[in-house]
Amino acid sequence: MDRRTVLATLASCATLGTAPFARAQASYPDQIVKWIVPYPAGGGTDVIARTLGEAMRVTLGQQIVIDNRPGAATNIGADLVAKSKPDGYTIMSADNALLAFNEHLFSKLPFNPEKDFTYIGAIGKFPLALVVHPDFPAKNFKEFLAYVKANPGKVNYASPGNGSPHHLAMELFKNRTGTFITHIPYRGAAPAMADVMGGQVPCMFLDLASGLSVMQAGKVRVLAIGSGTRSRLLPDVPTLAEAGVSDSEVFAFQGLVGPAGLPQNVVAKLNGDLNKSFGTPAVQKRFADIGMEAMPGTPEQFRTLARAEAMRWGPVIKAAGVKLD
Which UniProt keywords are listed (predicted)? Predict the structure, then answer.
């Protein structure tokens, strides 16, 4: 066989070898998509993923199956996704913990949150609000600040756990105001909120997804909200910035990621369908019910947000001495 024939044969084999992969990418998705949720079933992240998954199923033309993989502050689910095949059939809900906090909270991670994931798009964010028990002596933010300054270390605050956005929000508040409030960590938002409502712990930062109904019912008093502008759901509540606390925006965000190396057409398809889902009635109702602000945009905008938050929270976590290992 001459050289020309050998080269032609090799070229033909190479074409045959890559053709199935090319066809698979061009026809994405042609099988079920698995959506990893790094939290237990029934929680806020799980509910949001299921709502979006159902909306995106229509435009994707494939079923989306939710797979709950809780544990280790989202690291268990994240490690699974980071090591998955980059074909678009394994995606994941990613939030502050994975993309902004954990690299500062853990001495070592089995993955790099900046390099080992493909950013697909932001889902949304909801602000955290400073709340107190209705019988707490301070009736507004100014009085609260004066009270905790006059009683350093004597006021406790609850959180869903060490390293949670709620915990770190109060650490940021303490940093910005020069106050000392004692942390009481719980195992989840529900028991923390229950003890604040019951008066066992006087205050906490509470997210609207978990606490909007009790805020509106007056079971806790809302002193300030950590958003850039006032919430349309709590229009009478001032922002922390309005109350005089600088660089104090505190919110929980969620987005969609996949393993590093997802093909560009797969990312474009998932991003486009995610953005379309925000306009569906079911998603709009769910977001309105929990006070979540949809964040349609590009993968790069989501990456920029996540990395900016990681840079912002690193010094806060270090100053507070918070570690999860």
Answer: Receptor, Signal
